Amino acid sequence: MKILHTSDWHLGHTLYNYDRTVEQQAFLRQLTRIVTEEQPDAMVVSGDIYHYSSPAAATQKMYTDAMLNIHQACPEMTIVVTAGNHDSSSKLEIDSNLWQHFGLNVVGNIERTAEEVNLDKHIIEINNEKKTIGYVIAVPHVYPQNFPLLDTETPRDQRQARFFQALLDEVKKRNTAQLPVVLMAHLSIEGSDRSGHDESIGGIEYVPLSAMGEGYDYLALGHIHCPQDIKGSHHHARYCGTPLPVSFDETYPHSVSIIELEKGAEPQISTREIENPIPLVTLPHDPTPFEDALKLLEEYPEEKPAYLRLNVLTKGYLPPDCNEKASNAAKGRHANIATSRLPESDRPTLTRASLSPSKRCRKCLPWK
Length: 368
Description:
This protein has helices spanning 21-38, 57-73, 89-92, 96-99, 159-174, 290-299, 322-330; strands at residues 2-6, 14-15, 18-19, 42-46, 78-82, 104-107, 123-128, 131-138, 181-186, 188-189, 206-207, 218-222, 228-229, 237-239, 255-260, 268-273, 280-288, 307-312, 336-341. The protein is of the alpha/beta class. The strands form five sheets. Strands 6-5-4-1-15-16 form a six-stranded mixed sheet.
């Protein structure tokens, strides 16, 4: 079974008030092309479809148009989408019945009554030519304390792990042909590389890999933005990372993951890089005095689109004429000065200042 693993699209995200629709549309076009070329059996999107729980109508239309294009690029492919901590689980599920006509399964929350939990909702068969070739277990973002208590004997602090294992056990009963099993989750695994990830927004408690249970062939993770295999998983657990950087500190390549699965075998993983038409660039890599950073801004190619962050070494404040100098240096360029970065020790004494807009180079707040 071949799957395309992606997550953390953060559609609707703005960078220091700059609209990033052009970049997000470029990603979705590239994703459609990758699906056309790879023809996977399934595409799994492990949460954070949107950046805001109430996305704008234009952002929702961008998502629905893209999903229809992706379906048309590979009509036999099953698509599974789960809610992340940035998504509204109820809003994501509003059109779930309609989406099923296009091979798209949306799982935003755990469905339960006073008597039982609907485990079937999370178990999706992957078919090829009307033949089952594998299973996807789709678990949306749920805070540990909100997982259902499946039985009275399970301690409350273990109900998250019990829920994952219950789903895996249910699939094991059905999986008499020993087909590959993919488990989806949107959470933070202990020991994962969190480089560039902003922990202040929608932070999630960390769980050990062992809490995800036993019985899956591949764990398709979302939430951490740095692409990586989980240490000790032997490539059976992976964060695919963000397809577009959400912050300047996400300095690693951005991609989607392609996984070839056979039951009991180590997954074969490759990546397809996503090209951002407006990259996030820090000048320079290490902090430097403002005048030196300004010189690099003046030398930046005029016709090269980018968001620029000046990495400034200061004594607790920026020069009073820095806004004017930066504005003059950026005139005639396609780049946007998004922010100025100061060392941690300088930030508490930095006062908030604004940069005035120019014709072709929009400005915003240097730091917040």
